[in-house]
Amino acid sequence: MDADPFVVAGRAFSSRLLVGTGKFASHALMREAVLASGTEIVTVALRRVDLDRLGEGDIVDFVPPGVALLPNTSGAVDAAEAVRLARLGRAGTGSDLVKLEVTPDPRTLAPDPVETLYAAERLVADGFTVLPYCSADPVLCHRLEEAGCATVMPLGAWIGSNRGLRTRDAIEAIVAQAGVPVVVDAGLGVPSDAAEAMEIGADAVLVNTAIAVARDPVAMAQAFALATRAGRLGYLAGRGTVRAATEAAASSPLTGFLDRVPGPVPTGAAGAL
Amino acid sequence: MSTPKGRFAHELERLDLAALSATAQRATDGEVTAVLHRLRADGDRLDLHDLAVLLSPAATRRLEELAQAAQAVTVQRFGRAVRLFAPLYVSNSCLSTCTYCGFAKGLPIARRTLSVDEVQAEARLLSGRGFRHLLLVAGEHRVEVSQDYLLAVVERLRSFVPSLSVETQTWSDDTYARLVAAGLEGVVHYQETYDRARYAQVHAAGWKRDYDRRLSACELAAVAGVRRLGVGALLGLAEDWRADVLAVAAHAAFLVRRFWRTEVTVALPRIKPSASGYRPAVPVGDAEYVQALAALRLYEPEAGIVLSTREPAPLRDGLVRIAVTHMSAGSSTEPGGYSHPGAAQEQFAVSDERSPADVAAMLAAAGYEPVWKDAFPLHAAAQ
Questions:
Q1: How confident is the model over A47-61, as a mean pLDDT?
Q2: Which residue of chain B comes nearest to A45, CA vs CA?
């Protein structure tokens, strides 16, 4: 057994890289990239799944055996839709796992914090294991954890933007407080972004666009796997303290003259006057 | 009686399209370089002035660069995937007289409005060919294709077609709201041309003659909760196609800004031969057509760009690699044409006659995943 497993709702995984399945040039290429990434959890948009075509080349058919399928509610614009979609997904896939996404703004695909919380409460009550995609907001993450979510999945940057860990400060605060795994989802653009998220204590990362739209998605999947692992090891190893940039500067520009004053300076002299 | 101006009509009035169009005519190579540089270096969003520069003859000479920039933006946003849909013509009856259209009132053609059962049969056939997104298309006949008719069609199809859109006459806000409640996802209303004078010339009679009724319809639909809106212009109608492309872009940008929950798609169909006998005064060349779509992509990176089978196969195959994200395939433009081809008059002649499977195979060969299903039933009863 892995000495450092990633545990979600009682299930242990060796890999801390989760992979999305959208935007690939073909399902076959997606499968190759998933295999190369070593991931054990892939997320699939329920709106892309065609239950009438399962077994006939549907996207789900290309998820390699042994890899956990994490259906997501992408496309839902409010809590009611997300709940309905999650139930449709459970009926079709038999899985209680759901990655909750409520994104009413088609431009940024930013998660709606209010509707996400509502949906999380209802899905947890309905027996789902809920992994919510959410804003990088420490209070919202508290609330989602209190609602019974299995993880929190704050965004690094807008979905598909490849802009990297733009929410680093917030992620640090979320990691410091969280009682459930923190999975940095969305926006990670290059492997070093994944390493950075892992180094600051994220429990896992989820990557899709950066792999899918790379010139060589399979190689990029491997690179993200290595970076995620490296970042995790770096976090576990415990980094040394960071010296402020000014600390290394020579002496003290304002009080250095004291070293050049001849003779002893009597203490309490001022009081004696 | 004409409809009062909608919000975008007022915005369009304040826009100096003539000046923008002049920029589009006169921009220099240096200006094109500057816009392309800002795109590459800073990932800047473009304004309408920048778009005008990219529509210029100077930019036509830089088409390859423009196409490469557009491709990068398209792949980043939409991935290597193209969504497929089919138009389902439910009626060619029409009470409007549009001089360019094969369905125009008064044309001596075989008219037909499908029964709801017949629409269902067509939809089943298309579903069997793989489609999960259907666009219901009709002429403008508010008696034969009424609100109740469309509601009945949506209610009938929603259990097996997860994504339904309509391209019909414009409706009241109340009708849009009812259609949304029944499970309708998208509404398409192309303005055809944004040039009021030209619009009046080619829309001789009928409800469609009312420019502002048509222009404000997307706003009503958005307020009613339609989640995908399609806007566009029919290139070849107005002499100054660049002005129409600029107006479409402004319209899309307005809708995106004003109705933040709504996804906007854009299309620039070119006029095709039809029973109307209409010939475009100023045809838009292929290179300029590609340029227009690439420039639109760069101006509005998040907007889906839709391409129909009006365009020939080689052009469509090229455009999916540059800007297009949604394509129809294997289309028939006559009502009932999938089950019984040739029984009624088509709206226009399609150019790309490949089957849906062949178009999907082309996409796969080009390195794109053909996406058939990208929606879930919006109505609870449809599960």
A1: 85
A2: B374
User: What average pLDDT does the structure give for chain B?
Assistant: 92
CATH of the domain at A225: 3.20.20.70
| A23 annotated active-site | no
The structure's pTM equals 0.87
Partner-chain residue, chosen from B79, B162, B262, that has the shortest CB–CB distance to A213: B79
CA distances to A59, B14, B382 from B48, rounded to whole Å, are 39, 13, 42
Residue B222 burial by CB count (10 A; 0-12/13-18/19+): exposed, middle or buried? Answer: buried
Evaluate whether residue A211 is within a structural domain.
Answer: yes
**Interchain proximity B373–A49, CB inside 8 Å:** yes
Residue B281 has pLDDT above 80, yes or no: no
Structural domain contains residue A10: no
Please give the pLDDT value at position A271.
Answer: 47
- Poorest-confidence range of A55-59, A257-261, B250-254? A257-261
A180-193: pLDDT as tens digits? 999 999 999 999 99
Whose CA is closest to B289, among B318, B309, B331? B318
Can you give the pLDDT at residue A273? 44
Distance CA A138, CA B56 (A): 49
Q: Which neighbouring-strand residues pair with A153? A: A133
Mark residue A158 as left, alpha or beta (left: phi above 0; alpha: psi -120 to 50; beta: remaining). beta
Supply φ then ψ for residue B164, to 5 degrees: -120, 130
Q: Which residues contact A59 (CB under 8 A, 6 or more apart)?
A: A21, A27, A30, A44, A48, A49
Task: Give B148 or B38, the one with higher predicted confidence.
Answer: B148
Beta bridge partners of A13: A6
Span A236-247, mean pLDDT?
77
Residue range A99-132, pLDDT digits in tens: 999 999 988 899 999 999 999 999 999 999 999 9
Residue pair B80/A213 in contact (Cβ under 8 Å)? The answer is yes
Lookup: tokens for B275: 């029973």
Interface test with B, best of A107, A114, A162 (most B CBs within 10 A): A107
pLDDT of residue A244: 73
Give counts: helices (H), strands (E), chain B: 15, 11
A122 lies in some domain: yes
The domain ranges of chain B are 7-382
Nearest CA in chain A to B127: A52
Place of tokens 């309490």: A268
Q: Is the dihedral of CA B204, B206, B208, B209 positive or negative?
A: positive
> B7-382 has which CATH code?
3.20.20.70
State pLDDT tens for residues B106-138: 888 888 999 999 999 999 999 999 999 999 999
Q: SS3 for B54?
A: helix
Q: How many domains does chain A have?
A: 1
B373: nearest CB among A25, A48, A160 = A48
Closest residue, chain B, to A107 (C-alpha): B302
Q: Which two tokens stand for residue A86?
A: 């999650």
CA distance A209 to chain B (A): 7
Complex ipTM: 0.77
Band (A91; pLDDT cuts 50, 70, 90): confident
Residue A173 lies in a domain: yes
Tokens 């095709």 correspond to B272
Contact B303, B266 (CB under 8 A): yes
